[in-house]
Design goal:
- The chain is an alpha/beta fold and 658 residues long.
- The chain has three domains: 103 residues, no CATH class; 195 residues, pyruvate-formate lyase- activating enzyme (Alpha-Beta Horseshoe), CATH 3.80.30; 295 residues, Aldolase class I (TIM Barrel, Alpha-Beta Barrel).
- The protein contains 24 helices and 19 strands.
- The protein has a ten-stranded mixed sheet with strand order 15-14-13-12-11-10-9-8-16-17. It has a three-stranded parallel sheet with strand order 5-6-7, covered by helices on one side. The chain has a two-stranded antiparallel ribbon with strand order 1-2.
- Helix 16 runs parallel beside helix 17 and helix 21 runs parallel beside helix 22.
- The radius of gyration is 37 Å and the shape is elongated.
- The termini are far apart.
Length: 658
């Protein structure tokens, strides 16, 4: 070990004073020492290595860097900087570990690579210099730091995008300044952990436009008392809506994080959060990221849940990938068992339904049947003109819609039906369904033409397995024989890629006859059967429909008997009357992404959102408050108590089928 008598001379100042000079006036201090003591002198430091020997002679420096690495251990000199650099920094390593890390770091600094970096460095410097003011002084040090940072990030690390912790906005007051710097360096970035809405400014969001993939905001709950109290976030709800509005105005994609199933929550709390998430998505396009309250050992949430016996005191196994996002780990005491999971499932179903876009086009209201339940039975007997059909198909395809349902009235009575299907295929509609009463398909030539026109699905309406039951619903003598003949042609002629289904509307006349009707569908070879609950429009009124529970029980008996033989879907029904059978209930959810186009009738709007149109005649009742499906259901149908005045409908000419 070397002793002080072998060290070169140096200043006799106390170590503390030498350290102050070293830290705050290094240049002048080193120059003064070199003039007095020569090219090699000794300094004494108050922290870190107590003795530092300084060299300025090039030959001496060369000998140091090429000397024996076991004797000249440079890493030990940086021991005081380990808290800043980290224990694995190359500057703090010696021996074999230093050599290994150095080999990993060296390729970017080889001569050929350095030459290749030249253009990048020059471009970075030129871009920075263009920002410098002319004719007045400015601090050059931060500018040089910015150039150096960008050169390192771009050339050494190849960085083009930064992932930044949410604390950068949640606790820093210079967030906008940081964004401006990152923008000047031409970086893109993301803040994935969820930022506080009340710490975001409109200026910050504007700066992030075009730079951020999706802005992530943490909302968590729709109950202000919970945000202020047990959650402890203290974020005002109006700030969340304000940020959503700014992002929509500035066209910045926004995601909001929510948590449901806290131990203190009731169904009202859970529903409020889900409804706020839907409102922000529906009104502002804010994508909802929903997760379940999952206590982590060491948190106040875990302590509370453990005290209530909801989770084990030793904590949950967080390696279970279903936690947080896919499965609640406990039932809040204030909620019925399974409530939170079902409520989340209902919300996810609603979200998925909204994303699937479909155009439903009623191309004519001409029809040979006069069904007692017909939702368009009060419309004038009009048809869409060809130019209108063409414009509507093009308009919705340009908006991204790729599913089409052609309905009526009776669409096979429109003379340009096959032309409309051909145009839809040409425009790129991938799914094309025709819903028909099937009466005209008794003409084999017409049936063959329709089935080979480009449709992908054919849905034929049949409301009874016998003429008496069916015609009690259609109010059209002879309609059963026509429809059965049409079904036989369709099932014999349809190409393999065309899916066929039977459509049944449930009324008092057929509610007790659903079992034989399903047996007929299976015998004819249909791949699916839809049971539609009547909606309160057109000819339908209170006396037409059976009691809700009676209709639901009849359908559930059919499911029990035939679910393994044919696909069964339940349309326009409430989830609550199908306990244990909810997976069969489509309800109104699929109509969220559907636009209904009506044939010409000045009394009605030309186009409507089908979900909103149907929801206008539904109502929420007291039972809906505690129902986990309430987010995905508009409530119960409200039918007129008196038969509708059908004088206008009766004035329509009867349309013969022959």
């Amino acid at each position: 070990m070397h002793t002080a008598r072998f060290l070169p001379p140096g200043p006799a100042l106390p170590a503390l004073l030498q350290g102050i000079h070293y830290a705050f006036r290094p240049g002048p201090f080193f120059e003064a020492c070199a003039r007095r003591y020569g090219e090699c002198f000794t300094l004494r430091m108050p922290v870190g290595p107590p003795i530092e020997v300084m060299f300025s002679n090039p030959e001496a420096i060369r000998q140091i860097f090429t000397g024996n690495e076991d004797e000249l251990r440079g890493g030990e000199a940086f021991i005081a900087l380990q808290p800043l650099l980290g224990a694995n920094s190359i500057l703090a390593l010696d021996g074999a570990r230093h050599e290994r890390e150095r080999r990993l770091m060296m390729p970017p600094f080889h001569g050929e690579r350095m030459l290749a970096y030249g253009e990048t460095m020059r471009a970075i410097a030129d871009r920075a210099i263009e920002r410098w003011p002319i004719g007045r002084p400015f601090p050059i040090h931060p500018e040089m730091q910015a150039i150096t940072l960008e050169v390192i990030l771009r050339t050494v690390f190849g960085a083009r995008k930064l992932i930044v912790l949410d604390e950068m906005v949640n606790v820093r007051t210079d967030f906008e300044a940081m964004l401006r710097m990152l923008n000047e360096l031409d970086f893109t970035y993301d803040f994935p952990n969820g930022m506080r809405a009340d710490h975001l400014s409109r200026e910050a969001i504007a700066l992030m436009k075009g730079r951020i993939g999706m802005l992530s905001m943490s909302a968590e709950s729709a109950t202000q008392a919970d945000l202020d109290g047990p959650i402890g976030k203290g974020q005002p709800l109006q700030a969340i809506r304000r940020v959503a509005e700014w992002c929509r105005e500035l066209d910045v994609p926004l995601m909001s994080h929510y948590i449901i199933g806290f131990p203190w929550e009731t169904p009202a709390h859970v529903t409020a959060t889900l409804e706020m998430a839907w409102e922000l998505y529906d009104r502002y396009g804010v994508w909802p990221s929903m997760q379940f309250a999952t206590p982590i050992l060491g948190t106040a949430l875990h302590d509370q849940c453990a005290a209530l016996g909801l989770v084990p005191p030793e904590g949950l196994d967080l390696k279970d990938g279903a936690l947080f996002q896919h499965r609640p780990c406990f039932d809040p005491p204030g909620c019925p068992p399974g409530y939170v999971g079902k409520a989340r499932a209902a919300f996810d179903m609603k979200l998925a339904a909204r994303e699937a876009r479909k155009l439903i086009m009623n191309i004519t209201y001409k029809c040979a049947n006069r069904c007692v339940f017909c939702a368009t039975g009060d419309r004038v007997s009009a048809a869409l003109a060809w130019d209108k059909i063409e414009n509507i198909l093009r308009e919705h395809r340009e908006q991204g819609t790729d599913q089409l349902d052609i309905d009526g009235g009776e669409p096979t009575m429109h003379p340009r039906l096959v032309d409309a299907i051909g145009l839809a295929r040409e425009l790129g509609y991938r799914s094309i369904n025709v819903t028909t009463n099937g009466r005209l398909l008794r003409d084999r030539t017409l049936a063959e033409r329709l089935l080979n026109s480009g449709i992908t699905h054919l849905l034929i309406s049949l409301h009874g397995a016998t003429a008496a039951v069916h015609e009690a619903a259609t109010d059209a003598p002879g309609s059963f024989a026509d429809t059965i003949a049409g079904i036989d042609h369709a099932m014999a002629l349809h190409p393999a890629h065309v899916e066929t289904g039977l459509n049944v509307t449930i009324v008092r006349a057929n509610v007790d006859h659903l079992m034989p009707l399903t047996a007929l569908a299976v015998a004819k070879g249909f791949s699916k059967i839809n049971f539609q609950f009547t909606t309160p429009f057109g000819r339908a009124w209170e006396d037409v429909v059976p009691p809700l529970e009676e209709a639901a029980n009849a359908v559930m008996r059919v499911i029990d008997r035939y679910a393994n033989e044919i696909q069964i879907h339940v349309i326009n029904a409430q989830f609550c009357v199908f306990p244990g059978y909810e997976r069969y209930v489509v309800g109104d959810l699929q109509k969220l992404g559907r636009t209904m186009v009506f044939a010409a009738d000045p009394r009605f709007p030309e186009q409507v959102n089908l979900y909103q149109w149907l929801g206008a005649r539904r109502e929420k009742r007291a039972v809906c408050v505690e129902c986990p499906w309430t987010t995905a259901c508009e409530g119960f149908q409200v039918f007129a108590r008196e038969k509708p005045d059908m004088r206008l409908e009766r004035s329509r000419p009867f349309v013969a089928t022959a």
